[in-house]
Amino acid sequence: MPRGDAVVDADGIARCPWGAAPGAMRDYHDTEWGVPVEGEAAHFERLTLEAFQSGLSWATILAKRPAFREVFDDFDVDRIARYDDAKQAALMADARIVRNRLKVQATITNARATIALREDGGLAALLASFAPERSPRPRLVAEVPTTSPESLALSKALKKRGFTFVGPTTMHALMEALGMVDTHLLDCHRRRAI
């Protein structure tokens, strides 16, 4: 029996509360969140979706992810970097995604900045260079941090490289999503599963 906030559902498995109920969030919790990805497009997708999630629920973004992948050309940064005003207008008219002009523009800006990073090892290498030495050890949801010294440093480094919508909280969420930091609750079955 968990001693913290982990939830044991009918399947008898302890999970973080946000991923405990059957459905898309549980599937994401159990199979994707905290799992490292490979390739520039996969890293850029996570960066972009975390930026779009800012101020919204992750469930909203997860439900819209297939449409995001379609309209943003599977997060191919070379294609996104060439988006013009007509493409931006089409994105803003597409109700299947989050229609936030600043976030759409940030995606294009960040695609261009990602291309520029290739000369210095690329986006994945830059992100990995900010991985903390240790992950927190939360037993309670209240103990899960939303920022860290590393996410603050990553945010500053990305902004210096021309990225936008990459604040410390968003970068901490990105680090969690990529498995750079493990904030699954200690009693969660996914803790240290990767």
TrEMBL record:
PANTHER family: DNA-3-METHYLADENINE GLYCOSYLASE 1, DNA-3-METHYLADENINE GLYCOSYLASE I. SUPFAM superfamilies: DNA-glycosylase (SSF48150). Coiled coil: none annotated. InterPro entries: Adenine_glyco (IPR005019), DNA-3mA_glycosylase (IPR052891), DNA_glycosylase (IPR011257). It comes from Nocardioides dubius. This is DNA-3-methyladenine glycosylase I. It comes from the Bacteria. Pfam families: Adenine_glyco (PF03352).
